[in-house]
Amino acid sequence: MTGILVLAGTPIGDVSDAPPRLAQELAGADVVAAEDTRRLRRLTQALGVQPGGRIVSYFEGNEAARTPELVEALVGGARVLLVTDAGMPSVSDPGYRLVAAAVEKDIRVTAVPGPSAVLTALALSGLPVDRFCFEGFLPRKAGERLGRLREVAEERRTLVYFEAPHRLDATLAAMAEAFGAQRRAAVCRELTKTYEEIKRGPLGELAEWAAAGVRGEITVVVEGAPEKGPEELDAAELVRRVRVREEAGERRKEAIAAVAVEAGLPKREVFDAVVAAKRSAP
């Protein structure tokens, strides 16, 4: 009989937020794979629990090498508990490789739901939460970071990012450049900890605020792109667009109809612009 892989959420700040089942799993697991064994020791002491099984490290540097070892234990019937330093495993933390390998071997994977910086920041941001996407950490290099942001500049859903405090000012400045300085955002710092702070405002203002230096664990929530209204095009631009379509092989009637849809205008208005341009041509 194969074992079971358990992904367990750990507190992102206040240790009393630990789910009650976490202590049970720590005590009952055959193997506890932890991102940082020293942090795990502090957590178990705070919870008053003694892990009953073997403790191994499982972090970014050894994730690829250790995954086969843990899968072997699972195949042999072990109950393997995976925990990271804070929040849910796999969410910008180690875990994905192990889950994928376990699924491939038809091993059961379950979870002990726990605190999440992503959902906590969303709830506190004051921004729309009905639709959102998590973008994780941005690239460290300025050009790559700006390029990644420009890729989602028109994304309508609320965006959530993790960021290191020493890069926050540069990231907010890049966001202001890519999304517009007036796009609303919230910087969520030290969530659930003693010095928790939620700073809300336009990206331009937040970038200026962060320039003085910010400390702690950071989650940034950014408002999605506004819904676009009909384009405001002058007559010359309407005529140009019709001409481009005609040169591509469309009939004038079809070209006028297509441009009218693009601009959110009645076909008659586009038609009149084309006729007027024809009459005024030398």
Radius of gyration: 27 Å
Q: Which percent bin holds the helix content?
A: 40-55%
Number of helices: 11
Class by alpha and beta content = alpha/beta
Overall shape: elongated
Give unreliable regions as ranges.
Answer: none
Q: Strands of the biggest beta sheet: in what spatial order? A: 3-2-4-1-5
Biggest sheet architecture: 5 strands, parallel
SSE series: EHEHEHEHEHEHEHEEHEHHH
Tell me the strand percentage band. 15-25%
Q: Tell me the number of strands.
A: 10
- Give the terminus-to-terminus CA distance: 87 Å
Mean pLDDT reading: 93
Describe the structure.
The chain has 282 residues and is an alpha/beta fold. Helix content is 43%, strand content 18%. It has eleven helices and ten strands. Strands 3-2-4-1-5 form a five-stranded parallel sheet, sandwiched between helices. A five-stranded mixed sheet has the order 6-7-10-8-9, sandwiched between helices. It is elongated. The protein starts with a strand and ends with a helix.
Provide the descriptors you would attach to this structure in a database record.
282 residues; alpha/beta; five-stranded parallel beta sheet; five-stranded mixed beta sheet; 10 strands; elongated
What is the element layout, followed by pairings?
Elements (H helix, E strand, L loop, with lengths): L3 E5 L11 H9 L2 E4 L2 H11 L6 E4 L5 H13 L3 E5 L12 H9 L3 E5 L4 H9 L6 E6 L4 H10 L6 E6 L4 H12 L4 E6 L7 E6 H8 L7 E5 L12 H13 L4 H12 L3 H14 L2
Parallel strand pairs: 1-4, 1-5, 2-3, 2-4, 6-7
Antiparallel strand pairs: 7-10, 8-9, 8-10
Helix pairs in contact: 3-4, 6-7, 7-8, 9-10, 9-11, 10-11
